[in-house]
TrEMBL record:
Cofactors: Mg(2+)
Keywords: Cell membrane, Glycosyltransferase, Magnesium, Membrane, Metal-binding, Purine salvage, Transferase
Keyword Acetylation recorded: no
The organism of origin for this protein: Rhodopila globiformis (Rhodopseudomonas globiformis)
Name recorded for this polypeptide: Xanthine-guanine phosphoribosyltransferase
Binding annotation for GMP: D95, S96, G97, T98, T99, W137, I138
General function of this protein: Purine salvage pathway enzyme that catalyzes the transfer of the ribosyl-5-phosphate group from 5-phospho-alpha-D-ribose 1-diphosphate (PRPP) to the N9 position of the 6-oxopurines guanine and xanthine to form the corresponding ribonucleotides GMP (guanosine 5'-monophosphate) and XMP (xanthosine 5'-monophosphate), with the release of PPi. To a lesser extent, also acts on hypoxanthine.
InterPro entries to which the protein is assigned, alphabetical: PRTase-like (IPR029057), PRTase_dom (IPR000836), Xanthine_Guanine_PRibTrfase (IPR023747)
Amino acid sequence: MAAHYYTVTWDQLHRDARALAWRLMSCGPYTGIVAISRGGLIPAAIVARELDLRLVESVCVVTYQDELRGEPVVIKPPAAAGDGTGYLIIDDLVDSGTTARVVRALMPKAHFACIYAKPLGREMVDSFVTEVSQDTWILFPWDTEPQFIEPLARRTVA
């Protein structure tokens, strides 16, 4: 279980993805982007817009089945990206680096960037915006939903 939780709102994600794009402007030019599905899809769309890139490819890697972690399996390779020359790989988060290692092996010449990085995976990426502790679980806006909470005065105290 995570010791800390960090909730990312849609607004915060958008600001952080734009901050990543700003950092990446001086590293290009890029031919296109490869989004790591699924978490990297939305950040990749924002970065593609900010860098004015129209070629967006994806790579799909499965490392979890429900809550069980297994060996990573590439279920859709990034065919258009070749060895990654001129490409930018985008993900939301690098955690342990497991997925990043697989994707890096597919496209060793690409520039790998993510919004959030944890210490165990940080060495796998070339650029990131925010580092969080390894024991922090990031709650992305697509994994959460706002719900009504009773005011404290209305709650029954047990």
